[in-house]
Design goal:
Blueprint lengths: L18 H11 L4 E2 L12 E2 L11 H11 L9 E6 L3 H10 L4 E7 L4 E7 L4 E8 L3 H5 L12
Parallel strand pairs: 3-6
Antiparallel strand pairs: 1-2, 4-5, 5-6
């Protein structure tokens, strides 16, 4: 078996019925710079937007419900599509989103894991959680309860 090098980029493809609404929100409201992308003509449209560092968070349904509770957001009624974006100022990101017509799902709240989280209903069925880290990763890893899954008792 050959070794594979880790992926160099994570790209979420959001198939949106209202392309302009989605691009306006992510590019213009949230300030994600657009890079060149290839599409043909007519309704074949694409925008590739830079969103900074990407990680994949794999959560059990129980953990997702726990996060809903911590953030004060309504639980999803089934599998949900959610993006979590690290920002410098969660209240400002929420204000920009609601000013752009995005419904607020949960106001900014300080979580037990020391981040300031808030959530809006984004375009195309995606929920968008904004989180502002209140301590460094090094500080967090020294706190009780912060381990990798294989270290969990």
């Amino acid at each position: 078996m050959s070794e594979m090098s880790p992926p160099r980029q994570l790209r979420l493809i959001i198939e949106a019925d209202d392309f302009d609404e989605a691009v306006t929100y992510f590019r213009d409201v949230l300030g994600m710079p657009e890079q060149a992308a290839f599409a043909t003509t007519g309704e074949d449209r694409v925008a590739i937007l830079h969103a900074g560092l990407a990680t994949i968070e794999v959560a059990s349904r129980a953990h997702a419900r726990a996060i809903d509770e911590v953030e004060g957001a309504p639980p999803a009624t089934g599998p949900s599509l959610r993006i979590a974006l690290e920002v410098d100022d969660t209240p400002a990101a929420l204000a920009a989103s609601t000013d752009a017509g995005r419904p607020l799902l949960a106001p900014a709240v300080e979580t037990p894991f020391r981040s300031l989280n808030g959530r809006v209903q984004g375009p195309a069925g995606w929920q968008v959680t904004f989180f502002q880290e209140l301590e460094t990763l090094a500080e967090r890893t020294r706190r009780t309860g912060f381990v990798t899954d294989d270290e969990r008792p």
